[in-house]
Design goal:
Chain lengths: ~210, ~220
Amino acid sequence: MEMLRAIAIGLPLTVLVTILALMIGTVVALPIVAGLRSRNRLVWLMSRGLVDLLRGIPPVVWLFILYYGVSIGAIRLTALQAGVLGLGVVAAAYLAEIFRGAISSIPKGQWEASSALGFHRATVWSLIIGPQTARAVVPAYTTFAIGLLKDSSIASSIGVAEIVFMSSQYARQSGEGIMVFFVAAGVYILLSVPLGLLSRHLDIKMRKAVAR
Amino acid sequence: MNNLVDVAIQYGPTLFDGLKVSLTLTLLSLAFGLPLGLVFSFGVTARNKTFRYLSVFFVEVGRGAPALVLLQLMYYGLPNAEITLSSMASACLALTWTTAAYSAELIRGGIQSVPPGEVEGSHALGMSYRDCLRFVVIPQGLRIALPSLMGFAVLLFQATSLAYSVAVPELMSQAYSIGSSTFQYLPVFIIAGLLYAGISIPATWLSVFAERMLSRHL
């Protein structure tokens, strides 16, 4: 019972870190995608370099840099802030690549037709390319979200009291390590099931909306 | 900036030793994990129930649970079952599990995309089932799976940074111990990050290059 309690205490933080990092990642990814699609060589090179650097360095290193290394005046980030921010910017790089891929999967004819019909750029994005991109992005986006759920465990390394942190503390106190980690693994697997179902539901709904 | 150079000169060799441990851990996990992944990739669709359930269990847990949970399970959990491993051995075991689980799915995807005509052809030539797998299906399937396996190897190399939590003296734990004894956290972690990036970015380019080379005939 003690064991389940420890995991239950950690659960809300795991979910919170995942959701906040996903939100930061999605928002920050948008300007990066714009940069990756830019025709200006310098802007393109900088965004490409940013994405490669963010993805080339393991998330733990980013969290440690933010948590131990960054101090703005007397202000230091709390473990939760550093965890969310670090996982968020790494997520932004991966999501930017996912968004870029989805946008380039839209047939060229869609662009040509909308400019032949004289639509404004904003209209093209909001009514033609945007909705189709959203549909193309759903499967990869949810797969990434499930991966991020598991990566949120990395926040335990800087002391965010989520599932892995609580389980490892319990394992050291009680000396029963096998069960608690198997239960923690089970909780992660159970958490990713509804995400997978949601993804399939959204995919079917959006396919219907397009009605081929 | 000066600080960064000083730290790099003074602690470079220690960090480099850590990097060697990270690379060793990556290679060992790949060496044990990939053959196991090949076995599991057949196991998840095998007709033998025990073999199938065992494979599904290892693949689903290995992919569903964070690598950090597996690492801690091996290091803090196994001693309860009277099995005490060194930190390097337990990290290796955990990452082998992760590698086997992910590569099983990647290899299965590759093998399934071998055209059925190839199998029919080898039947028509009177090849035994084993020879058909050994000489026709597996070589082609592995070739299709190769770029994604290389991509996974890069992620695995990054995941070895989690092994610091079970006291493996790899790059991240070297950086952390230098940081906590000198309070030069920022420069040390930046150098560690650059070392990771210096390996994983070119390795990613290599996997993209491999993908282009192998899909040239398509």
